[in-house]
Amino acid sequence: MYRPYICPLCKSNLEYLNVNYFCHSCRSKFIIENGIPDFLTQIPMERENLILQSVRVIDKLAKIYETNFWYPIVYHVFGGIRIPRVKDTIKKLINMIEITKGIGIDIACGTGLYMRPLAEKIDQVYGIDISKGMLNKAKKIAHEQNIKNIELARAKVEKLPFPNKYFDAACCSGALHLFPDTLSALKEISRVLKEGAPFAVMTFIRRRFFKNKFVYKHLKEKHGATVFEITELKIWLEISGFEDFRPNIYGSMILFSVKKKK
């Protein structure tokens, strides 16, 4: 199977060499573990990325992530009691991706909760995440469910190991607010999407208790999380090369779709 990986640092082509990927331009080597290439090459400096620093905790969460002891609880704590059920949100988000063929990417795919339904809809899906634990769990579940059109890689959203205009669609659920530089993340996602490609997102906005400035200030300073204002989010999307912003708001949760500008 063809894998389109490029060097996330210098964007040069990679060579598959001795069971690793190697970049002849910048001399970087990217190891492959459990069939998953690791493109996360830089160790974060103190407070540079609080999410990256807590990746060991995220790794451990993979075991319970899709159980009733974690995702549904966190999902409703942040979004509110009256937001759609998890399975309904998954369906809504996947339906926002209005294609039935092509190649997609799930940004911060976790254990594949949204990636697997997307893989049922289109030809192939690549999932990227910073957590080895999440990726290994995603691979295990995909294998158990005999899903063969999923590829996984460890990578940062700000440095995606894919060529320009490669993907026909993208999704990102429950993670956009965790990226340390939202604008850089959105620009990089835009870079790897074809013109007109849909991008569907679930994240959180300043409603309910998120309206309290001390709450979102604490989340930003202590956890590196951003709680969005809708107008702010729309501007960042436009700057990053997206258009046709279609938001749906449920409590503090927002589901929205956009398209890469033609």
Q: What do these coordinates show?
A:
The model has no long low-confidence stretch (mean pLDDT 90). This protein has a single domain (36-260), classed as Vaccinia Virus protein VP39 (Rossmann fold, 3-Layer(aba) Sandwich). The protein has nine helices and eleven strands. Strand 5 (103-107), helix 5 (115-121) and strand 6 (124-129) form a beta-alpha-beta unit. By secondary structure, it is α/β, with parallel strands linked by helices. A seven-stranded mixed β-sheet has the order 7-6-5-8-9-11-10, with helices on both faces. The longest helix has 13 residues, at 132-144.
> Sheet with the most strands?
7 strands, mixed
SS class:
alpha/beta
What low-confidence regions span 5 or more consecutive residues with pLDDT below 50?
Answer: none
Helical coverage, percent range: 25-40%
Computed over alpha carbons, the radius of gyration is 18 Å
The gist of it:
The chain has helices at residues 50-53, 55-61, 71-79, 86-96, 115-121, 132-144, 182-192, 213-223, 230-239; strands at residues 15-17, 20-22, 29-33, 36-37, 103-107, 124-129, 150-154, 169-173, 198-204, 242-250, 253-260.
